[in-house]
Design a protein that fits this description.
The protein is an alpha/beta fold. The chain has helices at residues 15-20, 58-70, 98-109, 144-161, 175-185, 206-212, 232-243, 258-268, 278-289, 295-309, 319-329, and strands at residues 31-38, 45-47, 50-56, 75-81, 115-119, 133-134, 141-142, 165-168, 194-199, 248-252, 272-276, 313-316. The protein has a single domain, classed as Alpha-Beta Barrel (TIM Barrel). Helix content is 39%, strand content 18%. The longest helix is centred in the middle third of the chain and has 18 residues, at 144-161. The N and C termini lie far apart (46 Å). Bound molecules: ligand PBG. Ligand PBG binds at residues 118, 120, 122, 130, 169, 205, 208-209, 277-278.
Length: 330
C-alpha cells in the first residue's frame, strides 16, 4: 500500500494552526534588561554603537527600571560605572558604591522588580582586568585565588543593598563556591547565584567595554575567559559551577553559541540564561538602520531561537522593544 504524501504544510496553513502547534512562546517576564548606572553622569549619556542605550545617572536609572517593570520584564541587570578606579577595584564592594546605591534606590521605588547585579571587578580596576594582578614574576597576570575573596565581598555588598540575584561574570575558578559560602555566612542563604558559566573571550563585547570603560589596559581576557573553539569545556565549566552551588547558569555571547545553550541545558537541567550581548545588539541596530533588515522581525527571531535552543531567560538590550512588540501582538 502506498503511503499518502506526508504533508508537513498541513499545520502551516493558517495563523490559528501555526499558533496551535508552536513550540516556543516569547514572554516579557523571561526577558532581562541590562542597565548602566554611572556615578559621574549628570544626564543620560549615549553609548557609541548602541542606539537607545545610555549610561544613566541614578535618578534616570530608577525611571528606566520603572519602565522595565511597567513593560512586565522579568528583571534588570545592573552594571556600575564608578567615579574612581584603583588596582584592587575596591569601588566594587563599597557599601555606598554606585551599584549598591542603585540597587537600594530601585528596590525602594519598585519592590516587586527583580534586580540582578553583575559581580565583577573590571569596571572598578584601573587596569580593566576582572581580578587583581600578580606582578611578582615578569609580566602581570590576574591572580585567580586572591580575587575570589574580593568577588565574594562584592556579592555580599550587593545582597546587603537588596539585590535579588547576584551574577558573577569574572570567570575566576572557584568563585561560585566562595560567593555561596560568604553569602551563607553573612545571612544571605536565600540569595540565588546566576553564574556566567560559559563566558567566551569574544569580539562581541566591544560596545560594552566602551560603555563601561572596562577595556583591559594591557593584554586580553584570554587567560580567564573561554576559547570560542571549545564546546566540551563549556559544559565542564557549567557542571563545575553547578557543583559549587550555582542556582542558574549562563551562556554568553548568545548568537554564535546556540549549540552550547542546548548542550549546557541538557547536561545540567538548571535554569539557563543566554546573554545577547552588546556587539550582537549593535550588529542588528546597524543593519536595521542601513535598511538591511526588519528590526522587529529579526529581534523576535533571535530571541525565539535562544529560547528554542534551551534558554529559559534571555538577557538583551532589545528587551524593552521586545516587550512592547509582544504586548502589541496580544
Ligand atoms: C564584565 C562583563 C562584560 C560583559 C558583561 N559583564 C565585559 C567583558 O567581559 O569584557 C559584556 C556584556 C556585553 O557585551 O553586553 N566582565
Amino acid at each position: 500500500m502506498a503511503f499518502p504524501v506526508t504533508r508537513m504544510r498541513r499545520l502551516r496553513a493558517s495563523p490559528g494552526l501555526r499558533g496551535l502547534v508552536r513550540e516556543t512562546e516569547l514572554r516579557a517576564d523571561r526577558l532581562v534588561l541590562p542597565l548602566f548606572v554611572s556615578e559621574t553622569a549628570t544626564t543620560r549619556e549615549p553609548v557609541e554603537g548602541m542606539p537607545s542605550i545610555e549610561r544613566l545617572p541614578l535618578a534616570d536609572l530608577v525611571e528606566e527600571a520603572r519602565e522595565a517593570a511597567a513593560l512586565g520584564l522579568g528583571a534588570v541587570l545592573l552594571f556600575g560605572l564608578p567615579a574612581e578606579k584603583d588596582a584592587e577595584g575596591s569601588g566594587a564592594w563599597e557599601q555606598d558604591g554606585i551599584v549598591q546605591q542603585a540597587v537600594a534606590a530601585i528596590k525602594h521605588a519598585l519592590p516587586q522588580l527583580l534586580v540582578i547585579t553583575d559581580v565583577c571587578l573590571c569596571e572598578y580596576t584601573d587596569h580593566g582586568h576582572c581580578g587583581v594582578l600578580d606582578s611578582t614574576s615578569g609580566s602581570p597576570r590576574v591572580d585567580n585565588d586572591a580575587t575570589l575573596e574580593l568577588l565574594a565581598r562584592t556579592a555580599v555588598s550587593h545582597a546587603r543593598a537588596g539585590a535579588d540575584i547576584v551574577a558573577p561574570s569574572d570567570m575566576m575558578d572557584g568563585r561560585v563556591g566562595e560567593i555561596r559560602a560568604e553569602l551563607d555566612g553573612e545571612g544571605f542563604s536565600d540569595t540565588p547565584i546566576l553564574a556566567y558559566s560559559a563566558k567566551f573571550a569574544s569580539a562581541f563585547y566591544g560596545p560594552f567595554r566602551e560603555a563601561a570603560g572596562s577595556a583591559p589596559a594591557f593584554g586580553d581576557r584570554c587567560g580567564y575567559q573561554m576559547d570560542p573553539a571549545n564546546g566540551r569545556e563549556a559544559v565542564r565549566e557549567a557542571l563545575l559551577d553547578a557543583s559549587e552551588g550555582a542556582d542558574m547558569l549562563m551562556v554568553k555571547p548568545a548568537l554564535a553559541y546556540g549549540d552550547l545553550i542546548a548542550a549546557v541545558k541538557r547536561a545540567t537541567r538548571l535554569p539557563l540564561a543566554a546573554y545577547n550581548v552588546s556587539g550582537e545588539y549593535a550588529m542588528v541596530k546597524a543593519a536595521a538602520a542601513a535598511g538591511g533588515l526588519d528590526e522587529r522581525a529579526a529581534v523576535t527571531e533571535i530571541i525565539t531561537s535562544l529560547h528554542r535552543a534551551g534558554a529559559d531567560i534571555v538577557i538583551s538590550y532589545h528587551s524593552k522593544d521586545a516587550a512592547r512588540w509582544l504586548s502589541e501582538a496580544d
